[in-house]
Structures are given as structure tokens and as C-alpha cells.
Design brief:
A hairpin with a 5-residue loop joins strand 4 and strand 5 (88-91). The chain folds into two domains: 4-103, Arc Repressor Mutant, subunit A; 135-282, Endonuclease, Chain A, CATH 3.30.870. It has 284 residues and is an alpha+beta fold. Strands 6-12-11-10-7-8-9-13 form an eight-stranded mixed β-sheet, sandwiched between helices. A three-stranded antiparallel β-sheet has the order 3-5-4. It starts with a strand and ends with a strand. The protein is rod-shaped and about 100 Å long. The protein is built from nine helices and 13 strands.
Amino acid sequence: MMQLVPRGSDSKLKDYVPLHSPPCMNALPELGLSSYEEQTYRTLLQTGKATARTVAARSEVPLGRIYDVFNGLQNRGLVETRPGEPKHYVAVDPTQAVDLLLEERLDELDTKADRYRKLAAQARSTFTPSPPIDANLWLADFGVDDSTTLISEQSSVVTEQIRAAIGPPYTQAPLSEYIEEYELLLENVPHSVTVELLLERALLESLGGQLELAKRTDADVTVRRTDRLKMTFAVLDGTETYIDIPYPSAEDRRFGFIEVRNPTVAAELDDVFDELWTDATPVE
């Protein structure tokens, strides 16, 4: 333990000289003190309570810098002030000072560790591909039995909501090719289900009087018109999605359906539908 002995007793402020410096003082720069801060703190331990001018003279820290140094030490809890004119400064116990500096350093290390963990997670994500999403493919052109069977099953098992955005390839196909699918969709839907139909303008014009079927069905059906559809898809009950695949070499044919039972895909297409629906024009 460091012992302090008086250097003289005739001055208003006694000077103190340590019999020996504690070993921890040699590590102060490693614990985060600047050279000026270390010199100031060491000097204040020697002098005891002292003014800034006295400490500057004893520590050889420039008087123009001493107040900034004291402010820094005060903010870190290493120095306290005593009231009076001029203001006097007192160093806290060295053990307490070292504990405070250690806590600062450990907090800095924790912050750096968190940053490196986040960087590591980002790095891993660049090497780890997203797992493939399970999906079923149905090969079904317009008018074939598989397509009408699938449409009937889709509409009959829904319990809450159908959101269907209908555009290509329907917009290029003759009405006679897909009218049965449209009728089955509306005829088989339970009366408790909400149906939102978003139709491409060209498709709306082709359906003409067939739109009356939407009004006659027991379900709550709302129709809107848009010019922005680039594909056809449906979201059932917010969990299941069906995406129509255009035929590679013919605009008026359909290659098939993709059935996806994945909440992430359903949520993504739900968001797309919301955006399109908001901008679409209601059809009375």
C-alpha cells in the first residue's frame, strides 16, 4: 500500500511524496490514460488537494491543457473537485481509479466483440445459401381437366380469403379457353370467404357480362381493375400461393401452376397484392 509523507509544513498546501509508486501505475497508459492524464493523476496523488495551477507546475503539463485534462479525468470518475476559490482537485483512491479504467476497457471490448460477431454473421450469410423452398408443379394448360380440378379444389378448401391477381397469360388467351376456370372459382367458394379479384384491364374487357357471376355468388366478392399486372397469382388464407407459369413459346397458353405452401412466400405476395390493390380502380 502506498504511504504518503509530508514534504513540508510551512506552506498553505502541504506537498506529499509517495514512499513508492504502486505497481498498477505502470499500466495506466495501457488502461486508457493519455500521458498528460497519467502525469496529472500521479501529481495529484503526491500533492493531495491542489489547484490546477499547482498541479500544472508540478506535473509539467502545460497550463493551457491542464483544465481539459482535469475535465477528462473528472468525467471518468478519477478526480473530484472541492469547492473554493480557486477550485481544488482531489485524486480518487488508486485502486478505485484502476477499477474504473478496467471497467471502461472491458466495456470497449464488449462493444468490439458485438461488432465482430455481427460482421461474422454477415460473412456467414454470404457463404450459406438460403434453403430451397418446397413447391409443387402442375402441368396444366387452359381448358384441361387438371386445371379445372385444381381450381375447384383451391376454391372449395379456403376458409377465410382468396386474393387472386389475374393477368398474363389469361390476357392473351381467348375467353373460351379459361371461362370454365373463372366460373368454378366463384361457384365453389364458400359463402363465408372473402374474395378479392384484381383483373388486368384487357381481361376485364374480355369477361364482359361474365362479371355478373361475381355479384351473384354467396361469397363477399370485390373486383378491381389494374394495368400493372405482369403475371397471375393467388394467395389463399395468407398461407398458400399459386403462381401461373406462361408457356415459353406462346403468349396465349399456360405451362402450368406452381403451388407453394410457405409463409414467407405468401407474405411477400400478399404485400405485392396490397400494393397493386391500393392503386387499382374499383369495378362496380
